[in-house]
Amino acid sequence: MTKILFIEHDGSEHPVEAEVGSSVMLAAVTNGVPGIDADCGGACSCATCHVYVNEEWVDKLEEISPMEEAMLSLSSDRKENSRLSCQIKVSEEIDGLVVQTPEFQF
């Protein structure tokens, strides 16, 4: 199991454990993390699982795919560390990952 810390825009923390091979989005939804709606179910077509990745983790993740880039480009709240949590695969290498949920998703 991999540990992931979700931090809401107000600072509330939600530590969860995720199955290796699943997605960060699935870990959030399974554990009831507020602010991760995942309306499309992880198909990278809605951006309701947008997160800000803690700076120390950005370079440890796989690169953004063209499809994810296109979805993120539609967000007015996009930052350099924005990602769609449905596109971040859970692995042992990201044990301890920290992400923040944007205020607009609440």
Description:
With 106 residues, the chain is of the alpha+beta class. The chain has a single domain (2-101), classed as Beta-grasp domain (Ubiquitin-like (UB roll)), CATH 3.10.20.30. Helices cover 17% and strands 22% of the residues. It has three helices and five strands; from the N terminus they run ββαβααββ. It has a five-stranded mixed sheet with strand order 2-1-5-3-4. The chain is globular, with a radius of gyration of 12 Å.
Question: How would you summarize what this structure contains?
Answer:
This protein is an alpha+beta fold and 106 residues long.
Q: Strand sequence of the main sheet, in spatial order?
A: 2-1-5-3-4
Structural class: alpha+beta
CATH architecture: Roll
Low-pLDDT stretches are none
| Average predicted confidence as pLDDT | 94
Q: State the fourth-level CATH superfamily.
A: Beta-grasp domain
Helix proportion: 10-25%
Q: How many structural domains can be distinguished in the coordinates?
A: 1
User: What gross morphology would you assign?
Assistant: globular
CATH class designation: Alpha Beta
Compute the separation of the termini in Å: 28 Å
Major β-sheet profile: 5 strands, mixed
Name the helix and strand elements from N-terminus to C-terminus, one letter apiece.
EEHEHHEE
In terms of DSSP E residues, the strand content is: 15-25%
How many E-type strands?
5
CATH T-level fold name: Ubiquitin-like (UB roll)
Nearest-angstrom radius of gyration?
12 Å
- Helix run count: 3
Set down the secondary structure blueprint.
Layout: E1 2-7, E2 13-18, H1 24-30, E3 50-53, H2 55-58, H3 66-72, E4 82-84, E5 97-100
Parallel strand pairs: 1-5
Antiparallel strand pairs: 1-2, 3-4, 3-5
